[in-house]
Every structure is written in structure tokens, then in C-alpha cells.
Amino acid sequence: MSNLRWVMIGLCFAANVINFLDRANLAVAVPHIQQDLGLSPALTGLALSAFFWTYALMQVPVGWLLDRLGARRVLAGAVGWWSLFTATTAFVTGLPSLLGARLLLGVGEAGALPGFAKVVYNWFPRAERALASSIFDSGSRVGSALALPVVAWLVATVGWRHSFLWTGGIGFLWVVVWLWLYRDPQDHPSLSPAARHALMVAQGAPEKASHPALSLGQLLRYRTIWGMMLGFFCLNFTIYFFITWFPTYLAQALHFSLSDMKRYAMIPALIAIPFGWLGGWTSDTMIRRGISATVARKSCLVGGMLTSCVIAFATMTTNTVVALGLMSVSYSALAFTAANVWALPGEVAPSPGNVASIGALQNFAANLAGIGISTFTGVMLSLTRGSFVIPLGIAGALCVLGALSFLLIVGPVETLPSAAYRDRPARA
User: Fold this and answer.
1) 3-class DSSP state of 90
2) Residue 217 contacts by C-beta under 8 Å, 6 or more apart in sequence?
3) Alpha carbon distance 145, 414 (integer Å)
4) Quick one: DSSP state of residue 212?
5) How many Å apart are CA 322 and CA 359, to the nearest integer?
6) Which whole number is the average pLDDT over 145-169?
7) Which domains does the chain have, with CATH numbers?
8) CB-CB neighbours of 182 under 10 Å
9) Spatial CB neighbours of 423, under 8 Å, sequence gap ≥ 6
10) How far is CA 61 from CA 175, 245, 359, in A?
11) Looking at residue 213, what is its pLDDT?
12) Which DSSP string corresponds to 350-389?
């Protein structure tokens, strides 16, 4: 195996850091934006959720583009697009322009995670895909963790408008580096024919390459696809609380000042980073030791989701240390799970032309949860005068539902039988 694969996944990790730094920027700056633009909690929730509408709706079209045009071109365009509209947020004057900037941001960011999953499939053998997925996925925690101190510092130093200009500019630098370094294995001039062949064999690519890509309608006939979508919806309902309302929770429920947030608020995300890597390493190691992919992936998916439900208990204490501890356990368990979620598209795809599309389908469902948690929490805070009990209780319950989905609805973790469509209805 060529070590170039680690360079490629490192680029994906960096892009995901930028991705989540850009989308979390608004959440950190919310108190100042509310004051300057005169937004109520409910309208703020609407602004926070606007990103997810276009982000979710564009998943399937962008996944299709990734499978047809390749990761190099589509990811470059996606990162450049979202960086532009991150910077544009600096010039909003009210709710309509803020909604517009966030909607257009979502269009660009839709290409990120399915694109990274495509890169993992292209460059990594099966027994390393969960670890590779955990590396790019950990960029979300790094970006979220950096957003709290970095954006808080920028807001305090240059104001919230300039913070969007600074974070938006980083993405354009990444695009230049990406276009310079990235090629698919079959096109990379530094990859020897022997290394290219070894990679194809380790991927199982020769067998899958002979299978035709399935249409969206055909993919949705499989129970496994629906189980992946439901499980990821439940995971993201909880994980997006950390990206949207967590800073507000710290300020209102735990009475953190801006100075406190710079010191302590990134603790859950930082603790979650190594647990994400652990989740990928654990299931990959099980596969290398001869354990089936079904047992390896599902044990990590189910165990992680069940552990993450402890977020519901954070509302039962006013002790800052205990509350942050519970949040850290929940976030770490979600990261442990997510590494294996992103390994699934490459495992079950019947053809290389379906990897990004399947990743996009599950990410579409997952980001409906982003809309739900953002809007639902804002409405509940308005109705309950700032209580987080109901939103976090619902998040904990959905963690249990997600575990059941991965256990009972997702079938064997293996290639979906595309040939079934020629002779009879597809089976899960």
C-alpha cells in the first residue's frame, strides 16, 4: 500500500476542520448576532437550521456528481463555494440576508462528507476504511473545538462580522493545495502500477467494478439503506446539538461567560477526537483478525449509540463538572459510532459508482436531524423559558432508537446484490 493514501485523507481531514469551523461560526457568534440584528430565540433557531435545508436537499445531487465527475473536481468546487458564502455572512443586515447566506452555505457543504467517503473508498483497503473514515470525521470535532476559542477570540477582537471573513478565507487556500496534490489512484503519477494493483485487490474493486451502478430508486429498495439513514438521523440529532445550541446551553444553563467558553467549552469535542479514531481502529482490527464485517461494524455502531444516550442526564445536574463530563461521554460515543457509519457506504455499495450516492443518502437523512434539533430547541427554549430538558431528553431517546436501527434494520454488512434486479425484486 502506498503511503500517499495518508496524504489524501489528511487533506480530507483539513477540509472537514474548515467545514465545521465555518458552520459552527454562527453558533458561537449567536449572542452578538441576536443583539445586533434583533432576533428572538425562535428566529435564531430558524437561522441556525437554514443551513441544513439546502445541505440536506443537495446531498443526493452532489453524491451523484461525485460518482460521475470524481472527488477532485467536485470537492474543489464545493469548498470554494461554501468559503465564499461563509465570507458573505459578514455583510448580512437582517434575517432575510442571514437566511440567504446560510442557505447558500449549505449548498456547498453538501459535497464534503460524501466526497470524503469517496476518497476513502478510492484510496484505502477494506480493513483500513473505518480508521480512515475516523480521521476525516474527526475534523468535525477539531473544527467545532477550534470554533469555540478561535471565533470567540475573533468576535472579541475584531467583531463577529470579520470573524466570518477570516474563516471563509481559509477555505480558498485549501482549494489551491487540493488541486495541486489530489488525484485518484488510477491517475496519480507517483503511484506505481504494482501499488495501484495491490490497492485494487485489497479494495475488492475488481469484483465491484463489474457490477453496474444502481439508480436511486433501486438503492432505496434495500432495508439496509433505510436502516443506515435512520441510524445516522438519530446520531446527528444529538451531535448537531453540539454544533448549534451547545454554546447557548453553556451560557444559559451553566452560566458560562465568553471567557469561560474559551477555556472549557471545547473539552467535549477534544475528548471525542481520540474516541473517534478508536472506533475506526477497533472495527478495522476486528476485521483483520477474521471477524466478519457485520459483527465488527455493528458492535461499534450499537455500542456507541447506546452509550451516547447519557446526554439526557445532563439536565439532571447543576454541577458544571458533571454536566460537562456527561456531554463529553456522549460526544465521544457519537464520534466512536460515526467512524463506522462512514465506513458503511464502501462496504455495502454494489458498484464504485454508488459509494458517494449511498453516503449522500444517509447524510441527507442525517441532516434532516440538523433541521430538527436547531428549530425544535429554539421553539422549546421560547416555550419553556430557557429549559433544555425536553430537547436533550429527546436526543437521548433517539440515541437508543439509532442503536436499534443499526442492530435490527441494517442487514449484513456486505455488498448489496445488484444482480438481483435483473431477475427478481431486490432483497435486503
Assistant:
1) helix
2) none
3) 35
4) P
5) 36
6) 82
7) 4-423 (1.20.1250.20)
8) 22
9) none
10) 21, 29, 12
11) 79
12) SSGGGHHHHHHHHHHHHHHHHHHHHHHHHHHHHHTTS--H
Among 386, 321, 428, 363, smallest CA distance to 140 is for: 363
Please report which residue ranges of 253-319 form alpha helices under DSSP H. Answer: 258-264, 267-288, 293-308
Could you report the per-residue pLDDT of 46-58, keeping only the tens digit for each? Answer: 787 788 788 888 9
DSSP tag of 312: G
Q: Judging by beta carbons within 10 Å of its beta carbon (0-12, 13-18, 19+), is residue 36 exposed, middle or buried? A: middle
In order of 10, 220, 267, 380, the CA distances from 389 in angstroms are: 38, 35, 22, 9
The per-residue pLDDT for range 289-344, each reduced to its tens digit, is 999 999 999 999 999 999 999 999 988 887 888 989 999 999 999 999 998 999 99
Give dist(CA 66, CA 60) in Å, integer: 10
Q: How far apart are CA 409 and CA 230, in angstroms?
A: 9
Q: Which of 128, 202, 185 is nearest to 4 (CA)?
A: 185
Q: What is the DSSP string of 187-209?
A: G-TTS-HHHHHHHHHHHTHHHHH
User: What's the predicted TM-score (pTM) here?
Assistant: 0.80
Q: Of 186, 204, 224, 221, which Cα lies nearest the Cα of 348?
A: 224
Q: 261: which 3 cell numbers?
A: 467558553
Letter for the amino acid at 417? P
Cβ-in-10-Å burial (0-12, 13-18, 19+) of 272 comes to: buried
Give the three cell numbers for residue 325.
463530563
